[in-house]
Amino acid sequence: MKKILFSLFLIFGCTLAQAQTDSLFQQYTGKYSFPEGSPVSEIGVIVENGILTATSAMGNSELKATDSKDVYEVVAYAGTATFKRNAEGKVIGVTIQVQDMNLEGTKVEEKQKPAERKEQ
């Protein structure tokens, strides 16, 4: 009985930890645009199977957490992605450093869906 109870707590704990990780990653998700002339014009940041991932025309890469807040390793390209925040703490951009390139991107705000009209 103790083994079953322990197993249930372990499963619940792992599920809760995964949910917390996914919600932590959500603050970084979205599209980031880069200035004209950059090697990439846009990247997307998504959570895929619990892994923060950057996607672009040049390929995809896992973004692996580092010891520094808002700094992630760009695994496939041996670089870093540093997310920038505004005064309110909202993620507004990203700086990607890969080899000798330093790319500054701005988070693109998603257009909000029109509010459903209330029947009067």
Q: Keywords for this structure?
A:
120 residues; Lipocalin; globular; 42% strand; alpha+beta
In short:
It contains 1 helix and 8 strands. It is of the alpha+beta class and 120 residues long. The chain has one domain (2-108): Lipocalin.
Structural summary, described in words:
This protein is α+β, with helices and mostly antiparallel strands and 120 residues long. The protein has a single domain, classed as Lipocalin (Beta Barrel), CATH 2.40.128.50. The protein has one helix and eight strands; from the N terminus they run αββββββββ. It has an eight-stranded antiparallel beta barrel with strand order 1-2-3-4-5-6-7-8. A hairpin with a 5-residue loop joins strand 6 and strand 7. Mean pLDDT is 81; it is low at 5-21.
User: Architecture, according to CATH?
Assistant: Beta Barrel
What CATH calls the topology is Lipocalin
> Distance between termini?
58 Å
Report the count of strand segments.
8
Structural class: alpha+beta
Which of globular, elongated, flat, extended, rod-shaped describes the shape?
globular
Order of helices and strands: HEEEEEEEE
Name of the CATH class? Mainly Beta
User: Helical percent range?
Assistant: 10-25%
Q: Which regions have little confidence, pLDDT < 50, spanning 5+ residues? A: 5-21
Radius of gyration, in angstroms, nearest whole number: 18 Å
- The averaged pLDDT comes out at 81
Main sheet: which strands, in order across? 1-2-3-4-5-6-7-8
Q: How many separate structural domains?
A: 1
Outline the biggest β-sheet.
8 strands, antiparallel, barrel
Number of helices: 1
